[in-house]
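JOB MANIFEST
job_type = single_chain_structure
chain_count = 1
residues = 87
[input]
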Amino acid sequence: MAAVLVPWGLMAGGVVLSNIDRDGALGWVGIIVGLIGAVYSTFYWGKFSNSDGIARVRLSPLAWVARIVGYALALGYLLVAAVFLFV
């Protein structure tokens, strides 16, 4: 459970840090921390399938919800990071 929730916390913390100090070093630290969380959240689920994407284990419905939410949060965070970088 922590392997799913910690990256979500990192992404949320990254957004908060980047909003606190938008033009300073703390904003960049927030973006980097959040990107680490987004990458980990995205690639965490790869260990449950082989290279063809065929599942090796059967995930519970709650795990599927967590997987979809993790992908959505990571995509949203990448949009936040793009806005931070280009605006």
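[summary]
The radius of gyration is 14 Å.
The mean pLDDT is 84.
exit_status = 0
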